[in-house]
Structure to design on (186 residues):
């Protein structure tokens, strides 16, 4: 079926590079603002344990960005969205751990038992949620566009470092509490 195209288009649309820069700047502002609010909430609600959670969160972001620089991944708007979701998942892990320990302490468990049981009860949920999210990110990477791949890479790196920082910094926090006789979730 022969078709003849008009040499002059019906309409044209162009977008300047300033729109992309403006969108990325707005994304950075949104992430920075949400990060500050999350850190403040963790500090107020969990007090000393919130400091540990905030340190784990900041270490997670540092490791994630460092890994992205190491593999030369681009920082795109979808990548920033993956970083924001990583922050949410990391906070979720800390909240699960501390809330399970609070439940154990409320039942009258000793601190050592509350730490062990609370962490054991939260670990299964944390691993499950992180693994299912990583699997989803891997599928997005495999079948997605370049933008989705940026999101998937950032999210996967963020979740892997989140597991590392949550466990490593949590273990250091537990040792500190045991050494100084402090209660863990305040």
């Amino acid at each position: 079926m022969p078709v003849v195209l008009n040499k002059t288009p019906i309409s044209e649309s162009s977008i300047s590079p300033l729109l992309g820069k403006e969108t990325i700047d707005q994304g950075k502002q949104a992430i920075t603002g949400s990060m500050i609010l999350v850190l403040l909430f963790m500090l107020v609600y969990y007090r000393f344990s919130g400091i540990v959670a905030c340190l784990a969160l900041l270490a997670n972001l540092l490791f994630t960005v460092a890994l992205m620089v190491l593999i030369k991944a681009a920082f795109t708007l979808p990548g920033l969205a993956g970083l924001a979701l990583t922050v949410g998942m990391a906070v979720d892990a800390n909240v699960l751990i501390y809330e399970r320990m609070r439940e154990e302490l409320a039942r009258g468990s000793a601190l050592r038992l509350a730490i062990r049981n609370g962490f054991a009860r939260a670990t299964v949920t944390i691993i499950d949620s992180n693994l299912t999210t990583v699997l989803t990110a891997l599928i997005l990477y495999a079948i997605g566009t370049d933008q989705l791949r940026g999101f998937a890479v950032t999210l996967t790196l963020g979740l892997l470092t989140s597991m590392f920082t949550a466990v490593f910094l949590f273990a250091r926090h537990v040792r500190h509490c045991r050494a100084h006789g402090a209660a863990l979730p305040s």
